[in-house]
Design brief:
single chain; mainly alpha; 75% helix
Amino acid sequence: MCPEYALRLRKQIRRGGPVILVMLLLCWMAGVRARGTVDAPALVVLAFSAGAGWALWGILCLKEAVWLGAAAHDMTWGAYRRSPARTEPDPGDESSAFLVGQMTRVEQRVSEFAAETGMAAVTFALTGGRIGSWEDASSVGSGDRGHVALGYRWLEPDRSAELPYILEHELAHLRRQDGRKRLAAGTASVTAAALCAGQLPIADAALALSGIAVAWAAYQWWGELACDRVANNRCGRETAVACWRQELDRRSAVPLLLRWGFSLLGLISHPPTRLRRVRLTSARAESTREAARAGAAVAAHLRSRGEHTE
């Protein structure tokens, strides 16, 4: 397997690791209840303990991710900026000059965003090689601090049109404080799932857990689509549609089995790329209809005023 694909697979597994642990806990609770070895009050206490453990784990992960993001900044773009010998790129090296220009623009936009939102600090780091994935595009926030990570490949010339949209999408997650919201939703979901597994019959518990899982995925999709909408408003729908079209073209080059595997794992937290593209197209059509209706209303109002004047 290609090292890049292996890294992406490990990243997806890390994301799904806590979910796997929760599922094991729920299965254990269902088994305990079926055997009748633990009474109902104890199962309720265990369910709320599972929710509290999830919340504590999430808080620690958010804080650690922001800290590690700042460290990654110091080792990548921050290290470059601190080096006096490399402050200016070699004029004869066009690729390096383009890369530095892209990084500078990203840094400026991130600084503007921090000032707009009143956050104490938002760091930016490049990823690739031994520091993250070449294709990474992520953001994380904890308190009044945040971090944005972008893979080197997003800064390449053939992706220069996509970069603003991707960056605005990640900044939208920080603006919406999705980290906190997902932590709260995840805590509630784990607690509710544990209660269902411990109190309901096996068949009813399985149905309830399926509903909770679908609701969790829907909540994740809704957040991603909301960030898409923010990025659309800032960059324009043409840029957004072009971004997703190029993303689909790149994914078509990935081997079929790997593409299916990544797609299935990705559905836990992200809607399908084709759905995001279709939604942008439908939103554009809806905005065109709204503009036409508004124009027709204005024209009718002007005609009525003219008739009244006559």
